[in-house]
Request: fold
Amino acid sequence: MITTSWTRVHDLGQLGRRCYSDLAHSQSWGEARAVIKSQLEDDANQLRVDEAKRDLADRHAGKDGTDPEGGRLDRREFEETQDALRYLHTRHGGWWRKQERYHSDPLALIGRPDGMYGLDSSNGYNEWVSPDGESWFAWRETISGWIFGIGSNAPPPDEWKYDGPDCPTGPPGVDPRWRHDPFGLEAGPNWSLPTLDLETDKPARDQQLWADNEHFRRCALSALRRAFINAGSEWSGQPGTP
Reply:
């Protein structure tokens, strides 16, 4: 359906992969419009989350102390560092399944300043792997000085997490501050997303998002209209209608 109109289909390039699939299975113009509307609503929700995270980071930058859930107020680089450490844990699990041991120097293989997640010593990432490859841990100090770590002392999916004001003194099982967290539920408040105020200035943000997407929305609807007409499908609506 969509591929019947190549002249404007590139205008749909900003839609997500899930939206592409839903559009391909649409049986009418009305269904296709509903898919685009849903995608724009998802974009609005994501925009609110991203802005709330930035607002929270700016408001608490440089502050010491904790929030009501016990998490640190200054959370700058928390999410990025945790994502990078989780990725390293995933790679370690893959190496174990191939070699039945943890790789002795994975940062040398995947870590470079322009590589995935910036896992490189120049970005503050450090790692220790036992000589027998049975255990490992890695850590990084964020811009606020708070440190996060991840590691294993058993075969995958074994996972331990760490956070604190100083570096871990050893792998899981040696430093008692490590938390066993194979299911991502027990690591503590600093490994969880903070409570975000998504309602503050919600109408203003939605209005701005809709204005930013207006040109894209019109182009996308126009492309879909042309696709339906060329395919001889049902047409029931006007381009530009939400």
Summary: The chain has two domains: 2-52+200-225, 78-191.
